[in-house]
Design brief:
Layout: E1 4-11, E2 14-21, H1 24-34, H2 52-64, E3 74-78, H3 84-92, E4 97-102, H4 108-117, E5 124-128, E6 143-149, H5 155-168, E7 169-179, H6 185-195, E8 196-207, H7 214-219, E9 224-234
Helix pairs in contact: 2-3, 5-6
Length: 237
């Protein structure tokens, strides 16, 4: 796939290939032209890289997932990026159907390519979704589980993501979010508690790996980080 490269991630005792952007700077230059130079945190396609939070929550869920592995779940990932977490979920839950969602439509080709590489293309599909709009009727109240990793990049995300996730979920559904506790974390948590009941909050240490986004994190001298994993239940109606 032009403009992309394969990196390899240790997951479930195997080195697995993931296709990410080859040169983020070049990709960003091309994207800036596409959006007429209007780059903002709301429209900046960081999802073509692979961030630590997605890796950490995927590995954590192998042993700590809130559902039985054979459960026939409908799972939706918000802000799916290249689809790593969605593919990981498909391996952990072999009877689940996963909808990998992102605002940036060009990420669909990465999700498709990675699902094929992992042998889960029959159960992982991409859906372009805008959190700022109402939930499409076909998805309203249909998800057993909604997940997101590193999704609070802009203040608009704080406003729109929690009610959007709530409307995707069944009455007994769960929301799981992973975040490296950037400066919006406290505000995000307060807003999420307005819409959900916080059931579990764990902290996981993360060694920064030297592939994907971590290339320039390592260059900055950051070798470790800590990721918060939050699990929420729907509030009674």
């Amino acid at each position: 796939m032009q403009g992309s490269k394969l990196i390899h991630i240790e997951f479930m005792a195997e080195k697995r290939p993931i296709r990410v952007v080859d040169s983020f700077d070049q990709f960003l230059d091309e994207f800036a032209v596409e959006v007429g130079g209007q780059l903002t945190d709301e429209r900046c396609p960081f999802g073509v890289l692979l961030w630590p939070s997605a890796r950490i929550v995927a590995r954590w869920l192998v042993n700590e997932a809130p559902y039985d592995r054979e459960a026939p779940l409908t799972i939706m990932e918000l802000g799916c990026g290249v689809g790593f977490l969605s593919c990981a979920l498909a391996l952990i839950f072999p009877r689940a159907t996963i909808v990998a969602c992102d605002y940036e439509t060009q990420l669909g080709r990465y999700v498709k390519a990675n699902a094929e590489l992992w042998g889960v293309s029959d159960r992982v599909r991409f859906q372009a979704i805008d959190w700022r709009q109402p939930v499409p009727e076909e998805y309203r109240g249909r998800a057993d589980w909604v997940l997101g990793a590193d999704v609070f990049y802009d203040d608009s995300h704080l406003k729109h993501l929690p009610p959007f996730a709530r409307d995707l979920l069944k009455a007994d559904g769960l929301l799981t979010l992973a975040d490296p506790k950037r400066f919006r974390f406290g505000t995000a948590l307060d807003i999420l508690k307005q819409h959900f009941i916080l059931k579990r909050w764990v902290e996981e240490d993360c060694d920064i790996e030297k592939e994907g986004i971590e290339d320039f994190m390592v260059n900055s001298g950051v070798l470790k980080t800590k990721v918060s994993i939050l699990e929420f239940a729907q509030k009674p109606s």
